[in-house]
What does this fold into?
Amino acid sequence: MICRCGDCDRWLHPPQPICRHCWSENVSPQPASGRGRIDSFTINHQPWMPGLDVPFVIARVALEEDESIFLTTNIIGCAPTDVAVDDPVVVNFSEEDGIFFPLFERAG
Amino acid sequence: MGEPQAYISGIGMSEVGVRLKRRPLLLTVDAIREALDDAGLVAGQIDGVATYPGKMPTYLGFSPVSSDDVIEALGLKTRWHLGAQEMTAQLGAIAAAAMAVKAGRARHVLCFRTVYEAGALADPDEYPPMHRKDVSGASQWTAPFYAISAANWVAQYATRHMARYGMTREQLSAIAINAHRNAALNPRAIVKEPLSADKYFAARMISTPFCLYDCDRFTDASTVIIVSAGDALDEITATPVRIAATAGSVERYSWDQAEWPGSYATGKALWEHSDYGPSDLDIAQLYDGFAFHPITWLEGLGICPIGEGHRFVEGGTRIALDGVLPMNTSGGQLGAGRLHGFGFAHESVVQMRGLGGDRQVSGNPSLAVATSGGGPMAAALLLARD
Ligand SMILES: [Zn+2]
It folds into this structure.
């Protein structure tokens, strides 16, 4: 679910109670396709906190619906070194303590 | 008469180190004393104080001293003061002081930036670390994916530059190597030795493409810049440096939503506020929290086209002390320490007064750019010795 304006149809992230494009307050979470493209990424090697398994991929994914909307996420299901800019990706929700985190894996 | 002007009339710096024992307020006082002596001013003449980002109780190591702390501790009588996180970026505090003196709200403004990020780690009781679990605001959209450090955010801009424009790690290394070479000539720098390419490429990775030497490190220090009104220069004994233009911008508050770093919009705007152009610059002091930042500043300022910053720095000859555009002559943050923006204004003044010692650029540099900000927030100063 990604926030979307019901008047100008633009997608909004992070969510706000008002549309940044047309200032409409008619905004609500809407289902998104879950598909996108890797705008950029980094392989994190630094264990910033105890227990953090490294290396892993942090990416920003541009949504298929609107390429100006980016989700910061992790790319899973492949070796970190296999990830490349512009790779098509698809969401893969990961549950932790009842919260679903939108992670992504390479499509196809 | 002409329009009102603002000048940097004095500069000061405390001891710069890692895990210093001296308290941050007293480090700030050390830098203030040096700046007052430098300008030829006494405390009674100071009628304004400005700092970035103001005291941050949730992250004291990042900003442990407020404008109010300084005013109270030193018994200053001020007419204008400021300590604000919500501004363009670090050097925005100096830009605001310039506006204040031009508007007649103050004659001499003490601007400071005090950092105690290394000392805070050593004393977590007194300086509690930021609570990672308290995920609120913009970070709630990045922290769950362990994109915790600015290194992770900025690294993604760098990866994209590699994919889009062909930047290589060899080109990136020129920034860190230049910083270390200059720092080794700066007695106040935390880095004491040059960096070889072999050592750079042998270093461990932090967040690709950044290795250890591409990241600045926590430092304890205070840097002070005194901004004075043009009609108060008869009170000054040092060579004044004119604040010829200022600019700042913010792309998106959320770092991960910004299409471009703020350096692009701020760099462009700086020239719109002045009669100078990029080819007039004698030196460039460009924010280097990470080695990639100066590349975006070179592009944003129009020193080279967008997408060619990495070619400009390649091999390091253009940016060396004897190059066409000496860059980060004190060692920048990668070499001199994470002074967080203010170090670039300080070093600009040192160079334009000819006081750089072993690292002094020849040819009497008279126009400098100092920049700050590594994400969507950015600020820049154009500084001229008339
Ligand atoms: Zn709208």
Remarks:
- The radius of gyration of chain A is 15 Å.
